[in-house]
């Protein structure tokens, strides 16, 4: 790559010769198929540690999704309000906008994302931008762009600027040939959705960048996540959130999966706790780059029975969506997360009864719940 090296030397000389930089605009050059990292072969690659900085400087992409706002709240309590920047391509609600730093960031705009990382001295990046399972199947080209091309941008920037990078994976990273009960960390995956394929791609690319460039890449395979703070977003496991909203608003719930469809699930507080714990874990404690995490596993019928303990008059019917059912039938029934529990001490707090009680404690001020109680 003699041309690229010549350009790099010219840019370096120009920057060193300019005392004030007035009138000079340097446009980053991105070489397709080559990592942007152009450094000495004996350089040491690592994320900024707590000994070098009191707190990490955090950027969350796709921050207005189900997990981003909650993660920002948790991290701001831990590291300070101004050290955690939430980003998305959508306009945030007032309560989100005024709760801490928010900026526009399009992960498909490499130059803009790079500028954000540099200008804000980012050291940790949580990459949550993605199209979920059912939504991705409805628009494969967009899912491919967001989930794969966007990931490549994030990986290159993280490697170039020595970030500690977290990319979530999912139960959707497994397929019908995977062992389902339980599903171990390492096994055949072969998913059959663009969402799942993109997540396997993310796991492998992150691991490759770790071994090839020293990128501090960390990844958790999330089960279905249940949260009171967000509306369902088009995922196959979203019925487990929708049932609470429908129980309160109408007293009637129609499930789009079969009543005996068993899937691993987790309350959002456990999910966010696991995410922070794996990011704070010492590098030497991690025996792998991608871990399963689990808390509980239940069926729609079991969830409905637990919900009806709080709302006895809830009527549950089933109208199976063939696309979502096919996806669910290819996913794990239970996660084996022994490695996470051994390596960095993962332990969940919420089982099904605690989950349902907690959801209604947030959503259940409605008169329907008062009447049921």
From TrEMBL:
PROSITE patterns: PROKAR_LIPOPROTEIN (PS51257). Pathway: Amino-acid degradation; L-threonine degradation via oxydo-reductase pathway; glycine from L-threonine: step 1/2. Catalyzes the NAD(+)-dependent oxidation of L-threonine to 2-amino-3-ketobutyrate, mediating L-threonine catabolism. It comes from Charadrius vociferus (Killdeer). GO terms for biological process: L-threonine catabolic process. This is L-threonine 3-dehydrogenase, mitochondrial. Its EC number is 1.1.1.103. Pfam families: Epimerase (PF01370).
């Amino acid at each position: 790559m003699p041309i690229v090296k010549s350009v790099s030397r010219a840019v370096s000389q120009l920057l060193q010769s300019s005392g004030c930089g007035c009138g000079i605009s340097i446009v980053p050059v991105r070489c397709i198929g080559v990592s942007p990292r152009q450094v000495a072969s004996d350089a040491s690659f690592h994320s900024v540690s707590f000994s070098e900085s009191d707190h990490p400087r955090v950027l969350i992409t796709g921050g207005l999704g189900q997990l981003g706002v909650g993660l920002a709240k948790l991290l701001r309590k831990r590291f300070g309000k101004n050290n955690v920047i939430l980003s998305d391509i959508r306009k945030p609600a007032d309560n989100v906008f005024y709760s801490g730093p928010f900026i526009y960031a399009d992960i498909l705009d490499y130059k803009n994302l790079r500028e954000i990382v540099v200008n804000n001295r980012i050291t940790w990046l949580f990459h949550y931008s993605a199209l979920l399972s059912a939504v991705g199947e409805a628009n494969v080209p967009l899912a491919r762009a967001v989930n794969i091309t966007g990931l490549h941008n994030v990986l290159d920037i993280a490697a170039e600027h020595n970030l500690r990078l977290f990319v979530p994976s999912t139960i959707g990273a497994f397929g019908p040939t995977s062992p389902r009960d339980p599903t171990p960390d390492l096994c055949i995956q072969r998913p059959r959705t663009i969402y799942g394929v993109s997540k396997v791609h993310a796991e492998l690319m992150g691991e490759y960048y770790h071994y090839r460039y020293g990128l501090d890449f960390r990844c958790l395979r999330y089960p279905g996540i249940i949260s009171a703070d967000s509306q369902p977003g088009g995922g196959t496991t979203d019925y487990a959130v929708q049932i609470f909203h429908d129980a309160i608003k109408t007293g009637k719930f129609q499930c789009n999966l079969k009543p005996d469809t068993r899937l691993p699930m987790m309350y959002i507080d456990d999910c966010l706790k696991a995410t922070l714990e794996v990011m704070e874990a010492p590098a030497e404690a991690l025996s792998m780059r991608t871990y399963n995490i689990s808390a509980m596993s239940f069926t729609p019928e079991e969830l409905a029975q637990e919900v009806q303990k709080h709302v006895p008059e809830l009527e549950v019917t089933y109208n199976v969506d063939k696309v979502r059912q096919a996806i669910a039938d290819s996913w794990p029934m239970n996660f084996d997360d022994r490695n996470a529990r051994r390596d960095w001490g993962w332990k969940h707090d919420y089982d099904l009864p605690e989950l349902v009680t907690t959801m209604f404690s947030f959503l259940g001020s409605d008169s329907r719940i008062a009447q049921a109680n």
